Amino acid sequence: MAPFLNGMDRKKDLLPALLLIVFLMLQAVVFARNTPLSYPPDEMSHLSYVWDSMHSAFLLPNYGSGTILGFGSPNYLSHPPLYYSLLGAAGKLFSLDPKPDYLTFRLFSVALYGLALLFSVLTADRLGVERSATCISLLACSAIPMMGYLAGSVNNDTLLYLGFAITFYGMARIANDPHQKLPRSLAWVVLGLLIVFLTKATGMAMLVFFGLVYAALNGQHLRSALATRPAWIAFAVFLGVTGAYYAFTYLTHGAFFPKAGNLYQVTAVENPISLSAYAMDFYHSMARRLPIIFSHLSVAPIPEELTAVFFAMLGLPLAGWIVVRFSPDIAAAKKPFVKLFDALAISIVLMLAIHIYLGYRAYTQTGVLSGFQPRYYLFLIPLVWFPFFSLCRPGWFKQLMTGVFALLTVVVFWSSVPFTQQKQYEALQELGPTFEYTERTYENFGPLRIARRNEVVGSIDGLTLEDGLLKARGWVFDTVHRARVQRLWVLAREDYITSVKPGAQRPDVAKALGIGAAASSGFAFAIRNLPKDLQPCDIRLLVEFHDETLGYLKSAQCNH
Predict the structure, then answer these.
(1) Alpha-carbon torsion 77, 79, 81, 85, what sign?
(2) Splitting the chain (560 residues) into consecutive groups of 10 residues, what average pLDDT does each group show?
(3) Could you please report the per-residue DSSP string of 432-450?
(4) How much is the pLDDT for 298?
(5) Distances (CA, A) of 173 to 43, 97, 216, 337
(6) Alpha-carbon span 549 to 517, nearest angstrom
(7) How far apart are CA 553 and CA 560, in angstroms?
(8) What is the β-pairing status of strands 469-477 and 522-528?
(9) What kind and span of H or E run contains 189?
(10) Which residues are within 8 A (CB) of 90 and not within 5 positions of it... i.e. 6 or more apart?
């Protein structure tokens, strides 16, 4: 009876973590529903490979001549195919079309994200992490803006999260008890490795370094493990599957990571910066982008004054890990876990080093400082927080660190997560629609007479015109009738270009005018491909009111 009751207690103990996983998935679902198509990083390129897989007999992307949906340019991604094959199979099964059904494909990514979080919780259990620390870590995941945003998009990072979590779940089982149910533990490790090696090169590099370092730290145990039949079977399955894919890919495309095109063209770089300067740019860019949603529409949910609190939340368990690792008095006697975490730390450093080196090589060939993306390393979260809680002996230091970590997490969470969607909505409103200008023949429309307003209440807050791209934002309101205006006519010199309906949120205007209806008086828009000889002051905004009068919105920078 006692084992049964213990099992029931463990299931009850798991409930808060499961509820937090559901919350994190719902957070990703909200992002999936509210983020426009193509705004998340590389989403159209990922969707294009999904489309290729749906139309391939072998469910493989078209690495030879694949193009990006809606753009026609060659696809520049070189990721292995597993994510695209899985979504392609789902697309075939449910007769989906990537562009109109992009939300459904995003929900598949959310499901992968949820599974990754579940295996992270199971890994924490195997490492001896208290459930309270696991729950705090999950809440901290929700306070990292890019995690939920990326999970709610079509992006193979979510499958990488899952593969990495499964791999370390298997490794934690082995480190916890190398002799108990070894075949099952090895099966989990091989499954995770296969997912990672067939999904993304960043995760591959990380696990290759991890495997080499872990083998060096556990030479004697490794030799005895390799002498067992389950280990040979696991090794043969992993090598057979990955070897077959990469041999086939190399023979077919002449490269292990083929792609249809290049994002940046090779060019001669004059006076390139040094490797150390590149590394500093890498560091500063990562630090600047980590607290924000960095995408085609970047949003900063965390207030600037709390950025230091955010970094303290991220770094506190890592600092605790370092302290415990070199302080025997407060470290628990968990030697297998110490070697596991040592291998993890060293492999992270090696992965960062090789990433910086390869990024610098690419820079010297293209002149572009690229690859400064914190999202590349989010698969390490929340695993890198667990070593401290696993290794630290119970006592005042562990309680203090756990309490401070919880406090920092709550502060960052409540200051950002409830307002993220509102800030993204405001950014979308400010961005406004983009129009395409096409050349047309203009004629005078005869001696037309109209009723004109001389006083128009509003403001052009910003108007730029560079290389044929016009961007304008501001507000306008009909204070006579206390109503929104009908539309804005955009004129270039005396030629009509297009019309825009104001409606963006401007609560500041409503407060200033004392009129609630003015809260939706804002406008923002862009027009591409305008004649290159146009100047900003050649643009005029003509306001059409509901009483059929017209009036010009005055520009502070121009004399009209």
Answers:
(1) negative
(2) 42 84 97 91 95 95 92 90 97 93 97 98 95 97 96 97 97 82 91 98 96 87 75 93 97 95 81 92 93 89 95 97 91 83 97 95 87 93 96 94 98 94 81 73 72 89 85 90 92 88 84 88 88 89 92 81
(3) --EEE----------S---
(4) 85
(5) 35, 41, 19, 10
(6) 20
(7) 8
(8) antiparallel
(9) helix 182-197
(10) 96, 105, 108
Identify the CA nearest to 171 among candidates 335, 336, 326: 336
Please give the C-alpha separations between residue 203 and each of 144, 192, 351, in angstroms, as whole numbers: 20, 11, 9
Q: At what angle do helices 275-289 and 335-366 cross, to 10 degrees?
A: 110
For 103, residues 6+ apart whose C-beta sits below 8 A from its C-beta are: 32, 33
Q: Do 391 and 325 form a contact (C-beta atoms < 8 A)?
A: yes
How far apart (Å, rounded) are the C-alpha atoms in residues 544 and 560? Answer: 17
Report how far residue 522's alpha carbon sits from residue 98's, in angstroms, rounded to the nearest whole number.
33
Report CA torsion sign: 204, 208, 209, 214: positive
Q: What is the distance between the alpha carbons of residues 278 and 284, in angstroms, rounded to a whole number?
A: 10
Reduced to 3 states (helix: H, G, I; strand: E, B; else coil), residue 490 is strand
Mapped onto helix, strand or coil, the DSSP state of residue 179 is: coil
A 10 A CB-CB count for 534 gives: 16
Nearest of 530, 472, 528, 461 to residue 500 by alpha carbon: 472
Overall residue count recorded for the chain in this entry: 560
pLDDT reported for residue 12 = 55
- Residue 11: its pLDDT value, please? 52
Give the start-end residues of each E strand in 377-428: none
Residues of the chain above pLDDT 90, percent: 64
